[in-house]
Every structure is written in C-alpha cells, then in structure tokens.
Input
Amino acid sequence: MMDEIKAVPVKQTVELDALERLDIRVGTIVTVDEVRGSDKLVRLTVDFGSFQRTILAGLKQERENPRELEGRQALFVVNLAPKKMMGELSEGMLFDIGYSDGILPALAVPEREVPNGSRAG
Output
C-alpha cells in the first residue's frame, strides 16, 4: 500500500519564465561517497555528458545503502549557486519526490535511459 500524504494547497501561480530559468538535466550518478562528519549527506559525482558535478544530497537516513544509486540516472538542477555544506561544495541539487510531504523520497528519473545532459522541460 502506498503512503498517504496530507493535502496541501497548490503553491502560488508563477509565470512560465520562472520554470525556464531552472536548468534541469539528466545525469548518471557515477559514485556515492560519505561526507565526513555528516549523518545525512552523501557526495554524488554525477556525469552530465559534457561535464561532471559534485552534488551533496541528504540520502543517508533515507536509504539503507545509498551506493545502490551508482549507475542510475536522475534529474538534477545544475544552475543553482554552489553551496558549501559540511566544508564541501555542492554544485547542484538532486530532484526527488516525497521529501516535502514527509514520505520516503523517491528519485525523479526518466522513464527510459536518455543521453546524459538531456534537459527537462
């Protein structure tokens, strides 16, 4: 049985250009490594075809073995300002589904394999 979520209002309406400013791309998670001193964060090395990024994600408490994600494609925001966390720089954000609703998050993934760097939208 699927988890139930509490109904929340739809967020305020935005113009299409707000979405178009986000650069959301498919990348393959190459490695998942520990972030020293963090009980939540892991360091993802992600291949976007023409470039790679290091992206920190709070997956430790969501998955028994975050390394199971190695080799999987997922959606990432790649044009966020870099952010320092636990002394390391994160160069993007992993998209997931469910975290904001308090359920076990699932990756936002393409339905079939696509070239790394493919844009969403």
In short: Residues 16-20 form the longest helix (5 residues). The mean pLDDT is 93. Strands lie at 24-34, 42-47, 52-57, 73-77, 83-85, 88-90, 93-94, 96-97, 106-107.
